[in-house]
Amino acid sequence: MSFHEIIDTINEALKLPFKNFIDPSKRVHFLYLATTILLALYVFIQTKTHKNFFKFLFHKKVWFGKSAKIDYKIIFFNSFVKVLLIGPFLILSLYIAYYVNEFLLHKFGYDAVKLSVTETLIYYTITLTILNDFFSFFIHYLMHKIPFLWEFHKIHHSATSLNPFTQYRLHPIELLINNAKNIIIVGFVTGLFDFMSNHQIEKVTFYGVNVLSFIFLSWGANLRHSHVKLTYFNFLEYILISPFQHQIHHSQNPEHFDKNMGSKLAIWDWMFGTLVRSKSVKRKIKFGIGLGDDKNYDTFWKNLHMPFTNLFRKVIYSKDKK
Ligand SMILES: [Zn+2]
Ligand SMILES: [Zn+2]
Predict the structure, then answer these.
(1) For the chain, is the Cβ count within 10 Å smaller at the N or the C terminus?
(2) Looking at residue 240, what DSSP letter applies?
(3) pLDDT, tens digit, for every residue of 231-265?
């Protein structure tokens, strides 16, 4: 890498977090932040727990407390991971799509299925949303159930206060796993629909953000990581995860461990028996890993190295026991 390339990489990585504000496929796009404030105002009026809306929403601890500062540092660190380790591999999605399409053409021939552009748009959007959501849930489920993966996922749970940027508080290893999942799913589904629509898919994927994610992002997705308790109707919480249901997922209370692991849809949690609805939580919840473990993750560096340190300790300990 030349000196110029190093400067360009640093430049790109430092700009990346700010680009999220103008990227409509990102949750913190300014438009979604605006709808978030309106929904928070609705919750504020409904609950009447505070006198001043501004103080309620922009609580200093939530935005500038120790936990929030760790979120921001992780975001900048992960920008380098994205530019250096993820960016160059995004193209793999196109290769997967290409080979899936080729394979299906070989197997079934041309014109086996012929979807129109509108049909492709509808079915592609629905299939991609549901499959992506299921695998997001399933990987999240594994991260909670497999001790090795839990060490890395703990970093998302070590946040003791939540703000919309906490969604990006992920250990680089988890970031790599999530991106690998996206590359594979998008590749397969795009290849499948490219085959079924006679290459109409380019017209459909052009816009980047689809109508379903637009609805999800503008309807309070940012409140999932916040102290604003937006709940849905009880019946709806069986189908869609409300912001408060995700806050329950971050609860320190052992009763709530490994619950509500869904991303958009609640049906997976319902099926796997891990669903908790807002109605059943009466007491105030505290965020964090719980069991006295949070103090081990109260700096940026601890969050970065603790998974490796803990895994190393486990290996040594298991050797000692033999
Ligand atoms: Zn989790
Ligand atoms: Zn979360």
Answers:
(1) C
(2) B
(3) 999 999 999 999 999 999 999 999 999 999 999 99
